[in-house]
């Protein structure tokens, strides 16, 4: 049994844990004077009771918050084929055409198709798990000559693409939004922003100094792959980056760093700069210029570009709300920055999931829709990259590379 199949959000598993915990607690006084080797077994039963109590409390908090659906998503085991995935494609989606029958069958029911694969970046050579949502229209002959818009959805740390189906339940939300025409037919790309191992390896989607080019993989590599392989629109206004928590920071940071490729970003419970904590690697190694170039508040002031950003925070999310206020004060035209302050259940996935329909509607109102393949398509719209400092990461974007 793989860790990704062990559910942390199952009521049945929760009941089993509660029963085991109660039995362990009862066993401490029940067997207290019955053990032959009292010191050993008293210590063992107390330890067992404490461990089960901690695990049960954590599991209950996880169910309330909706953070991690499986043990695999919690530990980041690197296997992301999850419940709700319709098909497994080969490296870089080389056999996607073989999935057409599956996609056509789903399209008849108004459902998109979810495909999982490994993608290796052309520039960076970074290989990561990626899940793709292909809308029903992707397999519709009447849309064959149209290039669809794209959303790159960045999972929260330490989650990977499995959370798109198991945690967010996004395919159903996308199907509904497209059916109601609040969102145009849209391809959604869900990459693993971190790689493995997960624990202590939070990359914050940045090109690490002399390390891994996470940013470049998530932007230049994935965008180029999707335009070439999936045939999505190259128009910057047809590309949105979105995410929750660390994924929200990634979305705002990447859109301000690469405005020539992306027109919009949505951050739910995101913040303004890379975290410095026990889970985050030493990303910058003392390079203040790289640190500053990944600070959203500085980017919107020093490098304003015609991008639209929506930042959402909950009333109980003090840190995230403060960060959003700082970004709003720093933003200069032609950036269009808007924010929502919402009633929330704290910094957890339930708060995020409550916002998905409104977020999809916002994206639908701001993204460029499907466009004919045959005509000359706008790409950058005259928006130029600004000179990024050299990080030393292999294949990383630098200066004004495109």
CATH architectural label of the largest domain:
3-Layer(aba) Sandwich
SSE order, one letter for each helix or strand = HHHEHEEEEHHEHEHEHHEHEHE
Task: Detail the poorly predicted runs.
Answer: none
Percent in helix:
25-40%
Q: Given the structure, what is the number of helices?
A: 12
What is the residue-mean pLDDT, rounded to a whole number?
Answer: 89
Oligomer: single chain
- The CATH superfamily of the largest domain turns out to be Alpha/Beta hydrolase fold, catalytic domain
Shape: globular
How is the biggest beta sheet arranged?
Answer: 9 strands, mixed
Intertermini distance: 44 Å
Number of strands: 11
Quickly name the level 1 CATH class of the largest domain: Alpha Beta
Strand order of the largest sheet: 1-2-3-6-5-7-8-9-10
Pfam family, one: Esterase
Keywords: Membrane, Transmembrane, Transmembrane helix
GO molecular function, one term: acyltransferase activity, transferring groups other than amino-acyl groups
Protein name: Esterase
């Amino acid at each position: 049994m793989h860790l990704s199949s062990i559910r942390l959000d199952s009521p049945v598993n929760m009941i089993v844990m509660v029963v085991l915990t109660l039995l362990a607690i009862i066993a401490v006084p029940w067997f207290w004077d019955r053990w032959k080797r009292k010191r050993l077994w008293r210590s063992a039963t107390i330890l067992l009771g404490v461990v089960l109590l901690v695990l049960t409390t954590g599991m209950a908090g996880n169910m309330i918050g909706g953070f991690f659906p499986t043990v695999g998503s919690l530990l980041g085991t690197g296997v992301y084929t999850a419940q709700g995935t319709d098909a497994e494609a080969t490296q870089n989606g080389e056999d996607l055409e073989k999935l057409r029958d599956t996609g056509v069958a789903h399209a008849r029911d108004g459902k998109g198709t979810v495909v999982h694969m490994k993608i290796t970046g052309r520039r960076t050579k970074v290989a990561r798990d990626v899940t793709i949502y292909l809308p029903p229209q992707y397999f519709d002959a009447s849309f064959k000559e149209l290039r669809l818009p794209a959303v790159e959805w960045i999972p929260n740390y330490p989650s990977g693409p499995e959370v798109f189906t198991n945690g967010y339940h996004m395919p159903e939300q996308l199907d509904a939004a497209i059916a109601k025409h609040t969102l145009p037919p849209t391809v959604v790309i869900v990459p693993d922003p971190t790689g493995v191992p997960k624990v202590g390896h939070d990359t914050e989607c940045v090109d690490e100094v002399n390390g891994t080019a996470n940013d470049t993989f998530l932007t230049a590599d994935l965008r180029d792959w999707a335009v070439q392989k999936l045939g999505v629109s190259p128009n910057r206004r047809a590309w949105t980056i979105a995410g929750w928590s660390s994924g929200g920071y990634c979305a705002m940071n990447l859109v301000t760093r690469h405005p020539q490729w992306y027109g919009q970003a949505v951050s739910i419970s995101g913040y303004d700069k890379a975290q410095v904590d026990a889970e985050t690697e030493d990303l910058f190694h003392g390079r203040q210029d790289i640190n500053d170039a990944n600070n959203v508040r500085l980017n919107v002031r020093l490098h304003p570009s015609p991008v639209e950003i929506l930042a959402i925070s909950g009333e109980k999310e003090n840190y995230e709300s403060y960060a959003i206020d700082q970004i709003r004060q720093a933003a200069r035209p032609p950036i269009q920055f808007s924010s929502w302050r919402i009633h929330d259940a704290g910094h957890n996935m339930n708060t995020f999931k409550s916002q998905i329909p409104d977020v999809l509607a916002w994206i639908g109102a701001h993204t460029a829709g499907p466009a004919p393949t045959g005509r000359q398509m706008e790409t950058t719209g005259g928006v130029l990259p600004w000179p990024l400092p050299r990080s030393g990461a292999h294949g990383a974007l630098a200066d004004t590379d495109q």
